[in-house]
Specification:
The chain is mainly alpha-helical. It is built from seven helices and no strands. It comes from Russula earlei.
Length: 208
């Protein structure tokens, strides 16, 4: 074995796996659970059970997926996963009593709903920017960010206008968003070595 081969072999063995399925599955699962709460599935209207999942699966796992995407050289995936990992961590904080966030609005619950609406509006803007960035990635990814933008928009309007039906509509669209994220995650996880693969409508790279 040559000196060059001795140097290069460890690098070849130390490769970063594809973190996208982890990021997509963690996003999909947390989004699905919260969306089911938003539509009051099984008469559940208090979403606090989501806290643990939002902290560790939607938050930490997705944040780590974003860090691994940076290592893999995927700036878009890294920015998206890290952003939504941070979103779930911040959202969980809103529901933790000891954070004092909800307690600050005890005298004016309506103000809290407006504040949450503005919070969701900011995430709608971020998501729309990701949607623009996804247009030359794949149809599956573009569909994910389109429906997620719509989800945030409906939830923001629902909270700011105090319209429960609009929040529920956001929950139903969130369920569709989660289903698309599950599909995209499975598509990324399956490779040519597996029994089958599923398409995401990836666009061919541009040749200028």
């Amino acid at each position: 074995m040559s000196d060059i081969e001795k140097v290069e072999s460890p690098q070849r063995r130390c490769q970063v796996g594809n973190p996208a399925p982890l990021g997509l599955f963690s996003f999909a699962s947390t989004t699905l659970v919260l969306s089911l709460y938003n539509v009051h599935a099984r008469h559940v209207s208090v979403p606090n059970v989501i806290v643990g999942m939002a902290l560790f699966y939607g938050g930490l796992a997705q944040f780590l997926a974003g860090m691994w995407e940076f290592a893999a050289g995927n700036t878009f995936g890294a920015t998206a996963f890290t952003s939504y990992g941070a979103f779930w961590l911040s959202f969980a904080t809103l529901l933790i009593p000891d954070s004092g966030i909800s307690a600050a609005y005890t005298a004016d619950p309506g103000m809290e709903q407006d504040a949450i609406g503005i919070y969701l509006l900011a995430w709608m803007i971020v998501t729309f920017l990701f949607f623009i960035g996804s247009l030359r990635k794949s149809i599956g990814l573009s569909a994910l960010f389109f429906f997620l933008t719509l989800t945030f928009m409906l939830l923001a309007i629902g909270f700011m206008m105090k319209k429960l039906n609009v929040v529920k509509a956001g929950g139903y669209v969130g369920i569709v968003t989660a289903a698309i994220a599950y599909y995209d995650g499975l598509a990324d996880m399956l490779t040519a070595n597996d029994l089958f693969t599923i398409p995401t409508g990836k666009h061919a790279p541009r040749r200028d």
